Amino acid sequence: MEDTSLGKILIVDDNEDLLFAAKMLLKKYAKEVTIEKDPRRIPFLVNNHNYDVILLDMNFTEDTTSGKEGFHWLRQIKEIDPKAVVILITAFGDVEMAVQALKEGATDFILKPWQNEKLLATLSAACKLKESYDQVDNISQKSRQLQADMKKPFSEIIGQSSSMKNIFSIIDKVAQTDANILILGENGTGKELIARAIHDRSLRKDEIFVGVDMGAITESLFESELFGHKRGAFTDAKEDRAGRFEVADKGTLFLDEIGNLSMPLQSKLLTVLQKREVTRIGTNKSIPVDIRLISATNMKVHDMVMDNTFRQDLLYRVNTVEIFLPPLRERQDDIPLLANHFLKIYSKKYRKDFSGFKPAAIQLLQHYAWPGNIRELQHAIERAIIMAEGNELDSRDFFFLSSKPTTEKVSNNGTLNLDEVERNVIQKAIDKNGGNISKAAKELGLTRASLYRRLEKYGL
């Protein structure tokens, strides 16, 4: 038993010679050995100390043969600590008593006088069992915490505005289906965060989430990146490589900035989505893929369909359900929440003690237009924390925003011309609905035909 720690051990026996002999043997292997001859002290000891193993005599002076006292104290220990590891010891071993001891919750049963090697082996096994109990308990606690966190609706997405609550509702409805999702919204609004939230609540949550920035893939690398290639298929193909579709098999594939694809690439993507199989470059073998598709774009794909720059059949394929993420300027109620979230992150990162924002700072942040949306707000908070002094951020800490447009300037150009007002309202409705003409028309109280006439009139 070299280099083996038996942890903390409690031995309870009315035989003092046995106690001292056991302590002399075990102190070389155990972290701590406590001996006790009076069993009435067991509740106090177990309540106030953590033992890896308890060695408990079955028979004390009042009753030397039946084992009743041992069972009584075993029950007391288990009542205090159900996960306690208890080894019962007795000079009168019989099978029935051993079986009863195990049924009562004992971990093992050992006869005295014992062989030292047998005792050490039994204690070693018991300590490993205790360690496994502790690990399971730790994992269980973590699991409970994760479950509790999951019950907090969309804890990773910050927002309490009505538009965000509507998005949360949509995610709840679609997450556990395999419906293809199209997320629309300006750059920096958090489209990938929404995609990950859908994945994390889906039936595929234990599988991989693969994100692809379609805007960053050149036409020449499109097929290789998405569908894979065989070694030697082209000059730089030095090894076989699985494409993103294969990697995402059984999981979720997120195609960001799908609106940037050229018409030929849209056609290739559509073919794969229809057949649900890919063929690596340099091979003729089709590989079936099982993915849940989520796409996103900051472009007005519905207008692009009308302009013949985006395939209508591809749009039908990718947007079984459509989610529009409003720009930050339309989520003023969420700005203080987001700002405080980033304040905590960057205060910790830069080891600064900021308690919050002064009212003037929040007012400035809420009235600024945020063309870069949440991403710009995040960078603004980080910059302010680096440069600011004191423990509260003030409006002057955001001086770099003061010369930029505010929401008042964006929403009100000072004109009372009815045509100009109508043009602005229509533009806002289209932006809000991600270019969806039907939704914009419904919100404006117009028919699609009426809205199209106004779009033509105003050159929108």
From TrEMBL:
SUPFAM superfamilies per the UniProt record, alphabetical: CheY-like, Homeodomain-like, P-loop containing nucleoside triphosphate hydrolases
Organism superkingdom: Bacteria
Domain Sigma-54 factor interaction: 157-386
GO BP, sorted A to Z: phosphorelay signal transduction system; regulation of DNA-templated transcription
Stored CDD domains: AAA
Keyword tags: Activator, ATP-binding, DNA-binding, Nucleotide-binding, Phosphoprotein, Transcription, Transcription regulation
Residues that bear 4-aspartylphosphate: D57
Secretion signal, residue range per the UniProt entry: none
Keyword Transcription: yes
Name of the protein in question: Sigma-54-dependent Fis family transcriptional regulator
